[in-house]
Each structure stands twice: as structure tokens, then as C-alpha cells.
Amino acid sequence: MITYAIKRFIMMLATLFVVASMTFFLLAAVPGDALTERTARLPEDVAARIYERYGLDKPVFERYLITMNGILHGDFGESIVHQGQTIPKVLAEKGPVSAQLGIQQVIVGVGVGLILGVIAQLRHGTWIDYLTITVSILLVSVPTMVFALLIQQVFAGNLGLFPVIGWDAGDLSYSVLPTLAGSFAYIASYARLAKASLADVTGQDYVLAAEARGLSSRQVVVRHMLRNAAIPVVTQLPMTVAMCLTGSFFIESIFSIPGVGQYYVQAVSDRDVTMVMGFTVIIAALYIVTIFVTDILYHIVDPRIRLATGSASE
């Protein structure tokens, strides 16, 4: 277990290094920069000083070394477009908005998805089962952006039940439609996951033994089937939470929510390489760490898996 954890930790650092390096060189390969328009009409010496201030006058490889050294020390630099703005400041300002919206989406999506998946499997072969499968396929096939635009048009535009755009932390009505739009993907994935997990444990020896002891159907499902079927769900939850905390790029843009996702999209549009680089590394680090924790958690919740050899076996 310890050996496996050390190997995974080294791989985690190597992966993060590769992601940071690839992000830097991809951004460096894009023609133009955030200062092109700002300095187009300035005198040449003034433009040169501005480029020097942000280090964009240096060769690519030298900028790469400076950037990687800053990342190692937790310093991503200052925004090129918005003077004085840094990654910590943006996260402190916009992070809570994305976190609140993301957590609401997870609570609604995962909760509804698990309920539908359990009901579908317990009613296997009935119209409820087929309806759940059909709805799940529909929700996972249609892009989130399409659902967001659709419910925005219907519930906000036509019916006028909720605000069309904007955000007010003290008024939950602003978060209803973005929460619904972002929860559809979670409903689809967790409904299928719950159904498949229950299907795997149905007919197992311990389930048959429980039924033979005279336990009621409810006791068999709650005490034995759900408990063992929860293992895949528990191991997928950390990644779901990590994804929701980074902000929803499309949802925040469509509903004009001032979160991390919308800021990231705008930074890419503005070619604000400092902020794009910083957010990309942070998001990648969050995902990679989550995968590492999930692997360890999988071993904890299911001791039958031997991770010490670097492979999972029953």
C-alpha cells in the first residue's frame, strides 16, 4: 500500500509537470498576445517597456524557466489584461460563487440520479426501468449548453419564473436554472452507475444467503445490496466534487455568473496567458490529486483490492 502510494505520488507530480509544460508551450505558440492591441498605437519605446514589465520580451525558453520557477513557489504572476489581479485574488472573489453553484448541482444531480438508478434496477424490466435508461441516454447525449439555453428560454423567457441572467448570493432564485442545467449530466451518469452497481450485486451469494435467512426485501436491499453497490459511487464522488469546484464554463457564461468558469473563458479569449496558465495548472492539480485520493479511497472501501502490487485484483 505504501509503495503503491509513493509510486502514484511520483506519477502525480510528473503528470502535473507535463501538463504545465504543454500548457505553456501551447500558449506560447498562439500568434499574438494580450498586449498586441494595447500597444498598437503606443510609441515603440513605451511598448517595449510594457512588454519588458510582463517578461514577454524574453525568449520562449527563458520565459518557460521563469514560469516554472514561479509555479514551484506558488507564484503565477499578475494578470496581463487586468492590472493588479492575481490567481489568489480571483479565487477568493469568484471561487465561492462557483463552489456554491457546483455543490448545488452535485447535490441535486447525484441525489436524483442515485434514486432513479436504484428504482430502475429494483423495477428491472418494467417501464420504469426503460424510461430511466431512455432519459439517461438523452441527458448524456445532449450537450449541457443546449439544456441551459432551452430551460433559460422556457422558464425565464417565456414563463418568467426565474431571472434570465445574473447572480445574487442572497437570492436563490438566480441559482435555480443554472443548478438544474448543470445537474442533468450528474443525473444521467449516477443513474446508470447506481443501476449497474446494483445489477452487479444482484444474485451474489451473500444476497441469496440473506434472502434464505428470511430477511425482508427491504432489509436485503438496504443492508446488503446498497451497501456493496455503493463502492463505485463512493470512489467516483471525489472526482465529481473536484469538477464542480472548478466552475462550469458553459453554464456560467450562458447565465452570466461571475464565477471561476466564466473568468477562465474570458481569460482565454483575452489571451491573458498568466491567468490561463495559473488556472489550468490549478485545475489539473485538483483533478490529479483527486484521482490519487480516489485510488487510495478505493482500497479503503474495498480491502479485497491489493494495491501494493500496482494492480487491482479480486
Multimerization state: single chain
Q: Largest sheet, if any?
A: none
Our estimate of the beta-strand percent is: under 5%
- Determine Rg (CA atoms, Å): 24 Å
| Total number of domains | 2
Please bin the fraction of helical residues: over 70%
Strand element count: 0
CATH architectural designation of the largest domain:
Orthogonal Bundle
CATH class of the largest domain: Mainly Alpha
Give a quick set of tags describing it.
MetI-like fold, mainly alpha, 2 domains, 12 helices, 314 residues, disordered C terminus, flat
Topology (SSEs and partners):
Blueprint: H1 2-29, H2 44-53, H3 60-72, H4 87-122, H5 127-141, H6 144-158, H7 173-201, H8 205-212, H9 217-245, H10 249-254, H11 260-270, H12 273-301
Helix pairs in contact: 1-3, 1-12, 4-5, 4-7, 4-9, 5-7, 6-7, 7-9, 8-9, 9-12, 11-12
Could you walk me through the main structural features you see in this protein, from its secondary elements to its overall organization?
This protein is an all-alpha fold and 314 residues long. It folds into 2 domains: 1-79 and 275-314, no CATH class; 88-270, Orthogonal Bundle (MetI-like fold), CATH 1.10.3720.10. The protein is 73% helix and 0% strand. The chain contains 12 helices and no strands. The protein has helices at 2-29, 44-53, 60-72, 87-122, 127-141, 144-158, 173-201, 205-212, 217-245, 249-254, 260-270, 273-301. Helix 1 runs antiparallel to helix 12 (273-301) and helix 5 crosses helix 7. The longest helix is centred in the N-terminal third of the chain and has 36 residues, at 87-122. The radius of gyration is 24 Å and the shape is flat. The two termini are 15 Å apart. Mean pLDDT is 81; it is low at 307-314.
